[in-house]
Amino acid sequence: MQTYRHPGRSTVRRPRMLLAAGLVAGLLALSGCGASDSASDASSGDSKRALGAAERGAADAASGKTEQGAGGAASQRKKSDALPAGTHVIRTATLSVEVRNVPKAAAVARSVAEGSGGLVADEETERVDDTHEMSHLVLRVPQGAYDAVLKELAGTGKLLSRTSSAKDVTDQVVDVESRIATQRASVARVRKLMEQAGKLSDVVTLEGELSSRQASLESLLARQASLADRTSLATVTLDLSEPETAAKDGDDGPGFLDALLGGWHAFVTVLLWLAMAAGAAAPFLAALAVLLLLWRLLRHRLPGRREPRTPGAAGTSPTPPAS
Fold first, then answer.
1. Measured between alpha carbons, how far is residue 50 from residues 46, 71, 189, 203, 204 in Å?
2. Checking DSSP bridges between strand 233-241 and strand 89-98, what pairing results, if any?
3. pTM for the whole thing?
4. How far apart are CA 190 and CA 161, in angstroms?
5. Among 2, 5, 169, 312, which has the minimal tally of Cβ within 10 Å of its Cβ?
6. What is the distance between the alpha carbons of residues 238 and 154, in angstroms, rounded to a whole number?
7. In what order do the strands lie in the sheet with 89-98?
8. Helices and strands (H, E) in the chain, number of each type
9. How many CB atoms lie within 10 A of CB 175?
10. Which helix (H) or strand (E) holds 5?
11. Per-residue pLDDT tens for 107-140?
């Protein structure tokens, strides 16, 4: 039995199937675009409500990368000696010198520090036992004149002790510089977000974040200034003292003037003691004088006391002797 097939039915079904598949693909594409648009709108709203949280995370990640790069650059600079200008060192020294005259030596130290372009940060002078003086000076001198200044100060007298130290802070300087650059960029981003904020709550939140970041930036700037000061000027502590036997060596023994002065002091001391004794006895002497005067007055006025008569006086006859 022979089956009959229509010649155009298969050719007609194929274009219909292709058309249906194209329509389904178009609908899927349109739905995907709509979903992506809604997702992007939702993410945009979430980022605005988060008030720049993603921005802070990106800034922190960038600061971490910058710190790593700065650390690697600092280590390379430390290993190579071809860039001495990029090395930052803090130098300190302490000198103890014995001199004949402390005021003169202190004046020399001040002139040496100021002549090298430095300054005197602190100075204390005291007299010990009324025999010799001591002086404590803190000098700040440029790094380039550090060795020359130490040599001149040590030559002002007898060097008793000397200590010096050097600390490389190149890594700290580079790290602070990178942190300052990152913090400044972060502050600028927060300011830009404040200009774009439309809600009062967003503005308040961004203002708090801006204050915190500005405080961190100011702290980093202060640290940078401190490092710059300590690496540009070295600190030299100088202790000046006189020998304790200097005053004793000048005394050759007591002389005539010393004996005369000692006698005068003894004479004045005796006079003072006598005056003190007279002052203490004055009340008793006054009372005794008053009592003596009263006794003399009362003795002449007492009744029954007559003057004795002498024999042979006028108006009297001598008693004849008994036979």
1. 6, 33, 15, 12, 13
2. parallel
3. 0.48
4. 56
5. 2
6. 9
7. 119-128, 132-142, 233-241, 89-98, 158-168
8. 8, 5
9. 18
10. none
11. 999 999 999 999 999 999 888 877 788 999 999 9
